[in-house]
Fold these 2 entries.
Entry 1:
Amino acid sequence: MTESPHFPPLLKGEAVPRHTDPFDKAVSQAIAGVDSGTIFYSEAGDVLRAALVLAPETPLEEAIQAVYVAQIGLAESLGALAPPEVPVFFQWPDRIKVNGAVCGGVRYAADVSDPGAQPNWLVIGIDVPFIPVSDEPGKNPNQTCLFEEGCGEIEPMALLESWSKHTLLWLTYLMDSGFERVHNEWRPRCDDLGKEIDQPRPGIFVGLDEKGRMLVRQGVMTETVSLIEFAEHT
């Protein structure tokens, strides 16, 4: 039997039944008024699925910056648990890349979509595959899992524990210091920064602005794209 994960102060965990999506459970419980800081998680051994409920005290355009925090938390956790030669990067807005291939990501939802409105809740979920989804190795060369990247020793619950600690730490930084520190930590790990991209807009991804919006330059025009556009609708 898997030992229950230990969470840092201010956070608490609740396991969900095996065939229940922790993200869906977190959203339904957030609507019902569950405590901020509750993490719903699956104990499945082939993938880590977990979702954190937050009760932001800022407008959505600031609260949504916690999505970057969750990514940093995941990268730092993998950095701590994986072999040192395994590089972890981000692909905007929500993918995690290990050794250059997508290895899960984050998803998020709130009860408002207006950037200036204060959400009652924000749910941020993570999804990290541990073993191959397909029986055919190399079938999807742009997709990977931790086992294929030499991280077979990592246990899902150990990664969950580590993610919760690193994410709480960076949430504290975000609340105390604003977005700049989070941005400075996130930027060097962004795989498509400075590159020509097709999605979500064609152009060169030149960086993030002070609100965490993507800056895409096409010729002399620079357009902003918010994480809010990629939130899941409830």
Entry 2:
Amino acid sequence: MPIDYAAFAYAIAVAGGGVLGYVKSSSIPSLAAGLLFGSVLGYGAYQTSQDPTNVAVFLGTSTTLGGLMGYRFYNSGKIMPAGVIAILSAVMVVRTVTRYFSPPLKTE
């Protein structure tokens, strides 16, 4: 059961982005959303570390966050933070789906 470091890093980046948004502009919604999504992503990363086929929470949260931030980026045109999080989320969705459908590694 290898640890999914990329998924944990993504969860930490989302939570850290919420904290940074609060520190820079005193945005409580940014703090709440960052910590909420970061926590759920952390739980999903833990699940995928325990069982690589248990991707529902992580995939659903990444897709939702990517959609929300992609919509915000489309409306505002601002790369930071909406564009960056939308791109990271899209990368994580593709990575998760690819890992789910790829054959497991053979260990002897």
